[in-house]
Design a protein that fits this description.
Chain A is mainly α and about 260 residues long. Helices cover about 85% and strands about 0% of the residues of chain A. In chain B, helix 7 crosses helix 8. Chain B has a single domain, classed as 3-Layer(aba) Sandwich (Rossmann fold). Classes of the chains: A mainly alpha (about 260), B alpha/beta (about 240), C mainly beta (about 400).
Chain lengths: ~260, ~240, ~400
Amino acid sequence: MLKIIKYVIYDILRNKILLFFTLFLALMAFSLFMMQDDPSKSLISLMSIVLIIVPLVSMIFTTIYFYNSYEFIELLVSQPISRKAIIMGEYFGVAGSWVLSISLSLGIPVALYSANATGLILLLSSIALSVSFVSLAFLVSVLTRDKSRGIGISLIVWFFFSVIYDSLILGILFFFSEYPLEKAVLAMASFNPIDMARILILMKMDISALMGLTGAVYKKFFGSGFGMIFSTLVMLLWILIPVVFAQKIFKNKNL
Amino acid sequence: MIRIEHLSKRFGNLEVLKDIHTSFGGGKIVTIIGHNGSGKTTLIKCILGMVIPDSGNIYYNDSSILTGHHYRSEIGYMPQIGHYPDNMKVGQIFEMLKDLRHNGRILDEELLEAYELKSIFNKPLRTLSGGTTQKVSAAIAYLFDPAVLILDEPTAGLDPLASEILKAKTLKARNAGKLILITSHLLSEVEELSDNIVYLYDGMINFHSTIEELKERTGEKSLSKAIARIMKGGNLA
Amino acid sequence: MNRILLILFMVSLTIVTNGNTIRVDKNGNFQTLKDAIRFSKPFDTILVSSGMYSSVNTFVNKPLTLIGVGEVLLNGFNKDDILIIQSNHVTVSGFKLINSATGNLKDFAGIRIQKSKHIRIHNCDLSEMFFGIYISDSRNVQIIDNSSKGKNGGQSNSGNGIHLWKCDSILIRGNHLSGHRDGVYFEFAKHCRIENNLSEKNFRYGLHFMFSDDDVYEKNIFRNNGTGVAVMYTKNVSMISNRFEENWGDASYGLLLKDIKDSKIHNNSFYNNTVGITMEGSSRINFNNNDFTMNGFALKIWANCIQDTFYHNNFSGNTFDASTNGQLELNSFDFNYWDKYEGYDLNHDKVGDISFNPVSLYSMLIEQVPFAVILLRSFIVYLIDIAEKNIPYITPQAFQDNHPVMTRIAR
């Protein structure tokens, strides 16, 4: 598996698209920090950009990469290598490249301009977010053989999580505004990795506003370490569950 | 060497393999023939572990291939059309496979040398012609000196000279006691190489016999006529 | 007013120094404070030496100066009040008081001042108190450089640090109040001055006053109190150069203004509160030169507030700068700095050329549906706010700063 990871990372480095994205994100982060006198304000702008772009690019990139590697995967499957090693090798290769990409593109500017807890949590959440969308992309890719369909589904998944899902939450909150929905809202937010990453960052960035919420559950959630631990765990599940399913499906997939 | 027991596979509504039950021994070249869509490639892919059967089992040296992947270190596979990672160079694919498949055995680089592939080691795989890609595939299949070789339409894209080199190599391997499974449409090639013929018809094995038996049964002198007759007449059994 | 107060105190001090000096000592003639007071004549000075003395309901009923010399501990043993002052011209200093009673029967206190004038309490440390210093029906009292700590009884089972009821001309300076229900509590206390106090970690309010007109609050720090500072039903208040910090919670704010009129709130700093200022039914208040930094909401202004002016304030790092619950806004904003302002300044007069509306649609939405705060900084919220900014429809248009300054106002 380590060898496959090595080849995948090598391959991704050579195809330069991720390299361009890394530079682009770094450039954007640097310009945001340089345009503003107040780094905490830049961090807010960076957060909104990251929450949209990172899931989109990691999802689409991974899906395309997976389909482009189909031949390579086929070749590997006919070799004395277990399917688990193949799919996990591919996965860790892609996910590892993303961890590297985000760590550099966001890590360096954040370390230079905003080396504090909020900066760190933004960086870690972005990494977790990109890896969770790599996982989702793997799941989508093993589900359908057709490349354009796979990319289409990936786009829909991204759009669903970044726009539609939150609109639904907003709609439900309005519609049932008389009901004590606090637990339901937290549960709903847990079912969206972008929301989870966002809430993780909010807990450092806007905790004073979040503490304005009524209700004991919110208070417990945001006022103690519980919310941090819960969100981190859910984020990990968002990374783990799709890739575990992807692996199970791939194990019995006809190539 | 390879035993297939009651193997069935369907893709959606289409039953591709129906209760395939046969076995192949070493030191033989077995050619699998049949119409397009008769299940040849699916059968090969089942043996390679690329397609998971719905029911039945395949044994390599009496252990099931469905539960492990180590048996594949004894299989060399030459696909009909070799697809390789676009970014890789010819040399790198060999290096990578050696890296992934090191089994301590001496590498068989005869084809590598006969096809003079080392001279194109720096070329990216995507720039190769179909024939050259086939040469690469053939060299890869034989590289690890496996006990079983699976060649899917091996000579389809090869020039006559390269074809001859491959045939010679294949016969040599047979004589060394290896099992070679070939799918082919070229009857002359079939006649030239095969010890046994498997005829797949509509997902079932129509017959599995030697060329002599086949000629005897059909009463034809030439293999091509015998086969043509079967294909037209359908069932022989 | 203050000058008169000062002169009165000068006079009172000269009177005090005219008496005899009595010593209280564990081995002396007077072994308790009570004995000494009983023996003393008006305007005597009683010096108490180091040691622990029982003091339950020690009445000071003549003009006296009580001074603790060294480590003097007056212990109430949780039985009742510790010191009760019922005379004019009393000075108490240098004591440590501990263990006032707790309970619902009455407002037990460390030092109780009743119907007295010209009292001075300074350099006393009170701890394990129900109420710290309880002043009623008194005037011309100075409470200076004391500290009072509550008993950690929670909101329902603790009293106030400094409690004033029906008082006039009181000076409260340099005290440290913590662990009480309210740090400082005023009801019907007029013409008072509260300065340089630190009120923190109290269960309810750092400062709480009602019906207390003409008071001045200056250079105090109100930090991390249960709900912040609440001031109500009062007019002509000045709150200047105070700090309101770190008050977090669903009903928490740096400062709650309820029915406050004709007041000045200048040069204060509101830092890291859930809400900087919550304002209801308040009018004709000038907010000048305040800094609102890192609050959840800098301002929550209810629609029943009118004619309030916001001038030269800095708003930066707040999640929301302002929110309101209605459409009608009759307050004015001018020449403030808003870090969320995205306008331009083509004529380089350091004032933005287009106006700024600090109320976002989303902040109004949260007023309706508080749980929606969970969507803060999500893409959909961003879309909603952009749409509203370009086609204003719901946010109150009167609620805007026509001269937003381009750079943070230096203090």
